[in-house]
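2024-03-11 09:14:02 DEBUG pipeline.ingest accepted 1 chain
2024-03-11 09:14:02 DEBUG pipeline.ingest length=312
2024-03-11 09:14:03 DEBUG pipeline.predict start
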Amino acid sequence: MRTRIPPHESPRRGASRLLVLAIASIALAGCHPGNVEARRLRQSCESGVVADCNQFAVKLQKGEYVLRDDARAATLFERACTGGVGDGCASLGVVYQRGSGVKRDSARAPALFQQACERGTMEGCTRLGVLYRQGAGVTRDAAHAASLFQKACDGRDLRGCANLGTLYSLGEGVGQDLARATDLFQRSCEEKVALGCVGLGRHHAAGIGVPRNDSLAAELFMQACDSGDAGGCFHRGTLYEAGLGVTQKFDSAAALYRESCDEGLGEACARLAGLYDRGAGVRRNPERATEVRKRACDLGYSDACEKPKKEA
């Protein structure tokens, strides 16, 4: 609501009133519980409480009641980790993986996640398990990944449960157990873990361990996609392209593939290239199809790579 200056009041006096109101508003904002908590954490961190350094770093990273400062957040995560805070080690590992406020150095991540896991931070166990499954910075070891995911899941980190479900679904590092995989996906999806919803959706889409239900699969993929998961968007796109569980819409499929491709999912790029080739949901553009297919190959989706010509 605009503050009006009464007709009998001088402009100077009116301006003074507005200044007082502005100062009062700033003062009230400074008294917001979020601002008070941020100041408390900063002061506590400066006094040497490393657990509060970790919490204040989270606020700096998010820009929550403080100005966002990724570099300072990284410094405080390191202080917390050095001081024995497992959460700080896990967060610092992610910081180095992404290069947030520091020079990217993914080689440091495994040791930091290991420290976090050993100190009881289950997120560290899950993240370390992902690295062992991928062979990223460590020797690939699916069985060890499974044990780390199990530890995380037992410690109530549901992302660990979802990852463990993926291994049971594929029989990777563990004996294949579709019923157990479905249960792990169900538990994690109910708690809004996108990977769990994608896994459960894939089981329903293929009728693996559960009755086939394309409509339910579409809902699960959308739930994952809405939370920012590229895999969920991709799989939802495949259903739109095929007209399974949803009305066939090539333009919707193209939009979802594009979103997933932009997030680095090679297979989504390849599918999008196919739509450009056919002119399905997008204007036919063979040149664009070639560009997008090359991106799919560069992202590691080998089926999109040009096959060497056989010698006559």
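2024-03-11 09:14:41 DEBUG pipeline.report The CA atoms of residues 273 and 289 lie 4 Å apart.
2024-03-11 09:14:41 DEBUG pipeline.predict end
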